[in-house]
Records
---
Amino acid sequence: MIFADAFAWLLDPVNWSGGKSIPVRVGIHLLYCLGAVLGASLIAVPLGLYVGHTGRGGVVLVGGSNALRALPTLGLVTFLYLIAGGGTVGVLIGLIVLAVPPILAGAYAGIQDVDRGVVDAARGMGMTGSQRLWRVEVPNALPLLVGGLRNATLQVVATASVAAYVGIETLGRPLLDGLRVLDYGQFVGGAILIAVLAVVLDVVLAGVGRLVVPAGLRLSAAPAGRTRSRRTQRGRREEPVPVESGGSTA
């Protein structure tokens, strides 16, 4: 069976030692992913916050984001790799281009989703534009912003495998090697490693989200049924039971 061969490949001690071992490839894959998400955040978060706060350039932002999504990552990485003359710069730029749209969408949508009544109240209190942005809008936009970061991370983890196409030892190498020699156990083993890495990073970012997002915003984002049921249980009161009078009065 393919999965039996995959686990045999994963448990083979040969694959866990040396310069091309699984831990080394996981580390390289992780470094590219973190570098791409960090680089994309430095570009997309300020831009999304600015457009969402000012309301200027929203149409251009959405159109440009959709255009970036349509770019083929493998072709872009290969082209930039050739332009840069090898190295990691081209691969990182290609992955950053992939990660920008979801982070940009999360930052922009998060600011736009803030209750306008809250923003107007802050304006009425005399807050300046920057104070409203950082004290009111950004804290309320954190759930969607963190969601955009999680989405971008998952996409980059899956797509960073294409770096192996240009000779970089990421977790895409077992996929290419497995296809080349028709070793489907190695191919599926590499896919399992990528999936596990994506799940681990998503769990870590979910934990970070719970730390940075205020508790009130997490409760407001809970499903309506759960929130309603909790309120019902907390607000439930015992109604008095009417007592039927029996017998005659003297």
Note: The first helix runs from residue 2 to 11.
---
Amino acid sequence: MAKLYVLDLRPWLDGKWRELLPLLPEARQKKALACRRDADGARTACAGWLLQYALIQAGVPQEAQIFTENPWGKPLLRDRADLHFSLSHSGTWAVCAVGASPLGVDVEPPRCTIAMARRFFHPLEIEALERLKPEAQPDALGRLWTAKEAYLKALGRGLTQPLNSFAVTLTPEATLLDRSPYRLHEYRLGDYFLCLCTPEARPEMALLSK
């Protein structure tokens, strides 16, 4: 069964994130320290720690967390083809999902606009959005954006598959086209949108207090 881990970044954004650096692989440390903005360093370090934690919970000790990439650049565990993971961070949240099937996760604040949708979304999605009352559009836009990003992450092909090449139907629970084996599981973190795309059952969020 898929697992979903969530880390609130707010306690770490004031420089405390540097306490995590000795716990991280050297490459992640360097990536965090190379960030020009302190908040970006915090997100990079905390996301690295969250991935490390999630994989340990899945039975992969830190020394066995050796990564490679698929042909489109999606990170994979080199020695565990049976275990998949996806990582996302934005603003004040980092999220990580792990499971036995390919999956993707995305977290975003409410920043997608109807203009962005007209540029990037499928015509059926734009049509559905434009039928909504203006006050209902921001919620639908956030749900669609995270659903589409999570689906592309699950496919592992990056943006070689455009956002407008498939349509998500918004219902009380977002669903992909009927013939897709993937399910979209939606969550909310305050005003942030979170979506997990996986063929597996919906997991509960594990909110970490570290």
Note: The chain has a mean pLDDT of 94.
